[in-house]
User: Fold this.
Amino acid sequence: MSPLTAKNIHRHELIGLNIEIIKSTDNQIIGLQGCIIDESKQMLVINTINSKSNTSASRRLSIEKKKNSFRFQLPNKEFVDVDGSLLNSRSENRIKNIIRKRW
Assistant:
């Protein structure tokens, strides 16, 4: 399998990547940052650190893919913005899908 890049992020495993929510139907979660710890067909489970308050307590949040846009930090420290609707399938099925849209 090819290395993870901005052009092929939709065809790779997302668990372990750092993420930020940049657009959402829920204004309270915009700007939330964390690390993806699990993924299902329609949800990402993120281990977040509450940056809005002065506490460093972490929590796990389930975020719906389809209604949000995300900024991923790739292993090479590059950032890529992805609309969650492009990721709205199981990771093993995303590998098979051909997505013509480039970002």
Notes: The CA atoms of residues 36 and 46 lie 5 Å apart. The first helix runs from residue 91 to 94. The chain has one domain: 13-94.
